[in-house]
Amino acid sequence: MVVPGTAVPFFLSAKNQGKCGSCYAFAFISLLEFQYAVQLKNSTSLSEQQIVDCSYKDHGCSGGYFSNTFQYLQNNTWQVNGAPYYPYTGINSACAFRSVEGGRIQFESLRYIKIPANNIAAMKQALADYGPLWVSLFIGDQTTLTYKMISSTFNNYKSGIFQVNGCPASVSSSNHAIVIVGYGVDETTGVPYWKVRNSWELRWGDGGYFKIQRGVNMCGIESGVFYIARTA
């Protein structure tokens, strides 16, 4: 996936959040990296650690939510350090953001839009018009046998379309944030899917990505959907 008319990729290689519950930060930064690539026709790696340490309404390595992270970015006057300048450590630390030339990216004023739940047409249109979507879903836990099976299936995903039974679909049940980057239909089975970027490094899934059934709100992936756009 490249910026139209260039050889510039929207994203660099899939990243790795490690044992820190910072998926929300990785998903959010993915959207900013896309904005950077589109606006400047160049790829860059931005700092997830800045979000972990500095977004005070989020909870560092214990999770966070899109609107809280966006509010932090707005309060920080749309400034984000580059990843080399503020590298990822995967632990909670004091905020070390510095607004210095060469170490930070200054975005123009941005806005975000929340797409109503289960509005597949709006999600597809937003992908075409504004780029990747921040979404959350339930990927299992250890509380019930069914949820353990969901967790195992997701953790061990390698290829194909992720689809499981017994998965809750409410936003309140979601426990992982990821980024939808595209969609399609499986040529063999005819099952529609979303293509999703995870933050569990290249060795997980299909080069860091996975496909999940589209149009049935599988595990809540169509319940809490956001995108970022430049302010008109």
Automatic annotation (TrEMBL):
<dbReference type="InterPro" id="IPR025660">
    <property type="entry name" value="Pept_his_AS"/>
</dbReference>
<dbReference type="InterPro" id="IPR013128">
    <property type="entry name" value="Peptidase_C1A"/>
</dbReference>
<comment type="similarity">
    <text>Belongs to the peptidase C1 family.</text>
</comment>
<dbReference type="GO" id="GO:0008234">
    <property type="term" value="F:cysteine-type peptidase activity"/>
</dbReference>
<dbReference type="GO" id="GO:0006508">
    <property type="term" value="P:proteolysis"/>
</dbReference>
<dbReference type="InterPro" id="IPR039417">
    <property type="entry name" value="Peptidase_C1A_papain-like"/>
</dbReference>
<dbReference type="InterPro" id="IPR000668">
    <property type="entry name" value="Peptidase_C1A_C"/>
</dbReference>
<dbReference type="Pfam" id="PF00112">
    <property type="entry name" value="Peptidase_C1"/>
</dbReference>
<feature type="domain" description="Peptidase C1A papain C-terminal">
    <location>
        <begin position="3"/>
        <end position="229"/>
    </location>
</feature>
<dbReference type="InterPro" id="IPR038765">
    <property type="entry name" value="Papain-like_cys_pep_sf"/>
</dbReference>
<protein>
    <recommendedName>
        <fullName>Peptidase C1A papain C-terminal domain-containing protein</fullName>
    </recommendedName>
</protein>
